[in-house]
Amino acid sequence: MKRLKNLVSWLLIVCLMLAALPLALAEGVIDEGLSCTITLGNWPPDTAPEAEKALFENYRAIMARQYPNVTLVPDYYSYTLSNYVPMAKGGTAPSIFQPPFTDPQLLISQHLVGDVTDALAAFGVLDKFSPSYVEMLADENGRIYGLPRDGYVLGMHINLNLFREAGLMDENGLPLYPKTLQELAEYGQIIREKTGKAGLVFPASETYGGWLFTNIAWNFGCVGESALEYQDEDGRWVCNFTSPECIAAMEYIRDLRWKYDILNADATTTDWAGAHSLLGTGEAAMNFAADDSVDQPTANKGLPVEDFALIPFPAGDFGRYALAGGTCYMFAPNITKDQGVALMAYLRILGKLPFLDEDIIAGMRADYAAKRDRGAPVLPAISAWNDEEYNAAKQAIVDEYCNVDMRLYNDFFDSVTQGTISLKSEEPVFAQQLYRELTAVIQRMITREGADVVKALQKAQDSFQEYLDDEINDY
Amino acid sequence: MRAQPKASRARTAETFKSWLIMLPGLILMCFFVWEPLFESIRMSLYKTRNVELVRFVGLDNFISVVTKDDFLQALQNTFSYTFWSLLIGFFLPIVMAILIGETTKGKGFFRTAAYLPNMLPGLAVIILWSAFFSGEKSGVLNILLSGLGIPRQTYLTRAEWVIPIIILIATWKGAGATTLIYMAGMAGVSAELYEAAAIDGATVWQRIIHILLPAVRKLAGTLLILQIISVFQIMYEPMVLTKGGPDNASLSLMQLMWQYAFGGSMNYGKASAVAVIVTLILLLMTAVYSYFNRKESDWD
Questions:
Q1: Can you say how many angstroms the Cα of residue A55 is from the centroid of all Cα atoms in its chain?
Q2: What φ, ψ does residue A98 adopt, rounded to 5°?
Q3: With an 8 Å Cβ cutoff, are A265 and B242 in contact?
Q4: How far apart are CA B71 and CA B81, in angstroms?
Q5: Could you say which of A196, A206, A265 has the minimum Cβ distance to residue B243?
Q6: Mind listing the pLDDT tens digit of every residue in chain B (300 residues)?
Q7: Residues A247, A455: contact at Cβ < 8 Å?
Q8: Between the CA of residue B150 and those of B143, B144, B145, B158, B225, what are the distances in Å?
Q9: A432–B264 C-beta distance less than 8 A
Q10: C-alpha–C-alpha distance, residues A289 and A1, integer Å
């Protein structure tokens, strides 16, 4: 009898456990009804570090738990414009891939990417998407085709030691930094006179000079109809380096060298790393650089964080623009509505939507602690979301690790979040070649005092137009 | 009558063995030299998308390349590199070899010291010299000149100076190896002849002019053509030091080829066209040298 009781007891326990099993399995399920397959580009290959592979396997496991009927197909695809176009046309592009910020507008205009506006709305985050990014990732109707993965905004790094030496500090210990390009020239001149050091380091080698010049040109009015390159009504790409705005911008560069004499001596051989080095070692006071490279002059070149500041890109007479670059997520042109939702769910797990969980918070803490230990400024990342609660939660974590006087950075971040500066992505087609052509013109301007701006720009325009015709117009 | 086929068979067997010995080398040459060479020529005649051949365009790539200002500038620069390398770099190793050869004490030290820069990694040498020629106040040369009261100068941003500076650096690095080759050539001079000349009252200068230099004349001719070929393909020195600037003043043909292929445009067709043009120029120069060399041998 006792044995029978024991048996019955065990049977009851097993039955209870079996009954509870579906409940346990269902825990964490968000949408059982969502059923589709998505292919995920940039999945770590077998040769990737174990930790990275494990991380993505964990994402897959979470996705399987939360959306049991969504099938994830890992794809090792890595985006380039030339390999993506035939895949998109042929319907074989992965559901999600990661292009740089140079390409979204081109892909959107060619209808080569999928619309995720409704999917973002389904997650309740559409109205939280930062207007700064809408211009880069949306079409003219405001439909969204991408989300930022990581990004940067170009501003200006400054060496406060040289500002102090030049007497360019206010009574609160904050720099009297240039807010316009004209002030940049004048302040640079003061620094040169007072310290003997370069007011501005301008890396004008290879393609860097042209890359920075586009920012200056935008602020001189090289946007819209006066853009450096545009598509005419026949769809042909046209190079436009000889607009009055572009000529004025190039004359400004020439003046920085010959009228104000504020540039570093070896500008034509200076590259991105060299520019950071000159600022970090006190050879130059200002450098056009972004928020993602603040560790270069500080942690890497020894400039203490208290002697460093990040300011907004100076405005021109015709606007206030700054380059926003980085990498984004975009989607295949043939994704269905369900696939769009599944992809947003996946990005939410990756921490790319305005939701925080323990894993994301732990990752942020580790990152900030490492930066602080290296002597790099711990700064908030520019948020792609106008979600006060989310941003405040992230800011609270940054504050725990912050090692800088945020007054030296606030103007930069405010200009981005409050929209007082317009973010622009790089020129839409063959940007690297465009930069190379413009760099050659800049080099001529800063090494030959009497160089003819219009003639040099006309030559560069002819050369780049031939390139556009060869590579895209007459292809 | 029967011996001939036997000899012929033996010759055939010998020939077969010779080919067999050469076979691995020939296979490697085919894969790593001839095939890429012919592929490059073929590619230069096609419109390309990355490495894919899109359509045959004949000589369009060549016409497009040679009609551009940057090609003409690169061609002129490349000849300028060659001129300066001959001026600075051709005679220096001969002088060094003679000086070291004439040294009676510490010859080993000088030989090692001359060769030492050759052992340094090329990029390290360029970075070292870029600090020397930096136009900033902290540039080594500017610091030295400031001691003499000379104000700060820029060097690598001056179009007229940049090629001689690059050649100076390349010579500093490479002259030691050429010096050793000349020293080996001079070692072949009969010691008795040299000593006899000394006993007969020939001065050092006379011994150099009448014994050493004639002994290394042919070697110098070979090294001259090798130097021209090498300098014509100069690339990493300007690429690292000046990036081809300022305003293309140090752009070489090989660097232009690199720019077409990897500098953002990925135009392998045009890059191949530049490569073929460089090859043709070098073939022409080598043929001219061989012609005169053969003529000289005939006279001998």
A1: 23
A2: -130, 90
A3: no
A4: 15
A5: A206
A6: 455 677 888 888 989 999 999 999 999 999 899 999 999 999 999 988 766 788 899 999 999 999 988 899 999 999 999 999 999 989 999 999 999 988 888 888 999 999 999 999 988 999 899 999 998 888 899 999 999 999 888 899 899 999 999 999 999 999 999 999 999 988 888 888 888 888 888 888 888 888 888 888 888 988 888 898 889 999 999 998 998 889 899 999 999 998 888 776 678 899 999 999 999 998 998 888 888 777 666 655
A7: no
A8: 9, 9, 5, 17, 40
A9: yes
A10: 84
Q: Which residue reads 């994402």 in tokens?
A: A59
* Placement of tokens 């695809």 in the chain: A77
Do residues A297 and A159 make contact, with C-beta atoms less than 8 angstroms apart? yes
User: What whole-number distance in Å separates Cα of residue A409 and Cα of residue A424?
Assistant: 21
Tens digits of residue pLDDT in A16-58: 444 333 333 444 678 888 999 999 999 988 887 787 788 889 8
Is the CB of B157 less than 8 angstroms away from the CB of A265?
yes
Sketch the domain layout of chain A as residue ranges. Answer: 33-144+326-353, 153-320+404-473
A118 vs B: CB within 8 A: no
Q: How far apart, in whole angstroms, are the C-alpha atoms of residue A408 and residue A175?
A: 8
Confirm or reject CATH 1.10.3720.10 for domain B61-299, answering yes or no. Answer: yes
Superfamily designation of domain A33-144+326-353? Periplasmic binding protein-like II (3.40.190.10)
Where are the domains positioned within chain B? 61-299
| CATH superfamily of domain region A153-320+404-473 | Periplasmic binding protein-like II (3.40.190.10)
